[in-house]
Design a protein that fits this description.
mainly alpha, 2 domains, 3-stranded antiparallel sheet, 48% helix
Length: 489
């Protein structure tokens, strides 16, 4: 691989690399270490403590090593697609410190430096969600009512426990309250009682060690910022319109979203709307995603399989992982039949008149055969799974957000930087393919769960035959480059 494998890091230097989530053979190390040095410098200006000064000098020495190695390995200078696929690191690799004459920005830099020192003291990586929130603050969220707390915090980022307590009295966002609680713990340890002193040798310093020889923990791919610095809105839970999916209906949520949030442009089939990809753009993303099904990394294949489940169900990932694996009266993943099945009666207010199909309640949406093979493999590994998330081994609690953020980052690496395939945007786009390939507003509803274009009353008079459904699916599949599996399992 690259020459930077041969950089000799001592044990203290490796602690810094671990804190920022640096993966072996990643790019952009020079920019990352320069940013970390700038943040530690801001922290040193705020808290003139010898321990912080020692770590700042150590980081400057690491920057010199990386800069020298970059003469023979240009990858060390620029971010690479590989390094953008790791949690936490992408935040430090692609950002820049705020200029020194920006007082509010320097407070954010100082807080970032202290967060890094806190992780160094614990010998752990900075949590991805914390690194992401610091990035949001650095971007100075625009003054909107929904971002008032972010704007307030960006203008005066707390740098002491007293300032944290004062900020908590003004912050209403539960997400930012957790962030501030984390900062309080940081200020108690990183400033007053650093657990590790870089001036004291450790056993690992008796001989320098090649970083590439150290075991590298598997991390999930994480977000790659877009060209304009925007993040996926789904990464911020405050933007979620959360349905009661524990006891409610996923199909009803899709219908409600279409009825309440669909714009006139969407209803008219305009493909330049913000929340959908143009069919040609979607085709490019899908064909790029299918390459991930051949990856030797299980995490990549899992993310790819989730992406296609989101696309065919029209659900963002946070809801798609709740799709049951057992038949029900709503929506479920039937791996034996090779389909996403949904209950057509949910969308029909009353029983239709006239002849009906043999199984009027079931609409089967076929998945790509390669996706099915991987999902069936995961089912064999986790036979007790009851939902798609269980089968994909999606963690619970706070780790779930980090896992889903990583998925969304992986998804964005397969699209254009100017108009990235955000999670919800990508999941909502299959209907436009059916709309423009079939010239009908019925097929987006039946085969893509996109209710934005159809008059709901019309569905009471729709009785498509199984062969017709399969022909329409093949039309869309040929356009996207998919190979649909059979429906007999």
């Amino acid at each position: 691989m690259g020459e930077h494998q041969l950089i000799q890091w001592n044990s203290h230097e490796r602690l810094v690399l671990t804190a920022v989530g640096y993966p072996v053979n990643a790019g952009g190390l020079v920019a990352t270490l320069r940013f970390v040095a700038d943040c530690l410098s801001a922290a040193l200006d705020r808290h003139a403590l010898p321990r912080i000064a020692d770590w700042h000098r150590l980081c400057c020495g690491m920057l010199t090593k990386a800069t020298d190695a970059a003469r023979t390995d240009p990858l060390l200078h620029a971010p690479s697609a590989a390094s953008a696929s790791y949690a936490t690191y992408r935040h430090f690799e692609t950002t820049t410190a705020i200029r020194v004459d920006d007082a509010a920005g320097q407070r954010i830099n100082a807080a970032t430096g202290l967060v890094i020192l806190h992780a160094v003291g614990q010998g752990r990586r900075v949590p991805d969600i914390v690194a992401q929130q610091l990035t949001w603050l650095r971007k100075r969220p625009r003054k909107r009512s929904s971002l008032t707390d972010w704007t307030l915090l960006a203008q005066h980022c707390p740098l002491s426990t007293d300032e944290v307590d004062a900020a908590l009295g003004q912050i209403e966002s539960p997400q930012l309250q957790k962030f501030l609680s984390y900062l309080r713990a940081v200020f108690c340890s990183a400033v007053t009682a650093m657990e590790v002193d870089p001036a004291e040798p450790t056993v690992g310093d008796l001989e320098t060690t090649n970083l590439s020889e150290q075991p590298c923990r598997v991390r999930h791919p994480s977000p790659q910022p877009t060209e304009d610095g925007a993040e996926d809105p789904e990464d911020n839970p405050e933007n979620w319109s959360e349905p009661d999916t524990e006891s409610g209906s996923l199909v009803n949520w899709l219908i409600s979203r279409a009825v309440v949030w669909t714009s006139l442009r969407d209803r008219l089939g305009v493909t330049s709307s913000w929340d959908r990809l143009h069919p040609l753009a979607l085709r490019s993303v899908v064909r790029s995603l299918t390459l991930g099904l051949n990856s030797p990394l299980a995490a990549v294949r899992t993310f790819t399989a989730l992406a296609f489940c989101c696309l065919h169900s029209a659900l963002p990932s946070r809801l798609a992982i709740r799709i049951p694996l057992e038949p029900n009266d709503d929506l479920w993943l039937n791996l034996d039949a090779g389909v996403l099945g949904w209950n057509f009666r949910v969308a029909v207010a009353s029983e239709p008149q006239g002849p009906v199909r043999r199984d009027p309640n079931l609409i089967g949406i076929r998945l790509d055969s390669r996706v099915l093979r991987w999902l069936r493999h995961l089912r064999d590994e986790r036979p007790t799974a009851t939902t798609l998330g269980d089968m994909l081994a999606v963690p619970g609690g706070d780790l779930q957000l980090e896992w889903l953020t990583s998925y969304r980052a992986y998804l964005r690496t397969h699209g254009e930087r100017v108009r990235p395939p955000y999670d919800a945007r990508f999941a909502s786009s299959l209907g436009t393919v059916y709309l423009h390939e079939t010239r009908s507003d019925v097929w987006p509803c039946l085969l893509a769960l996109d209710f934005a274009h159809v008059a709901m009353g019309l569905l009471s008079y729709v009785h498509p035959s199984e062969p017709t459904l399969r022909r329409r699916e093949e039309t869309a599949a040929r356009f996207l480059g998919l190979t649909l599996g059979s429906t007999n399992g």
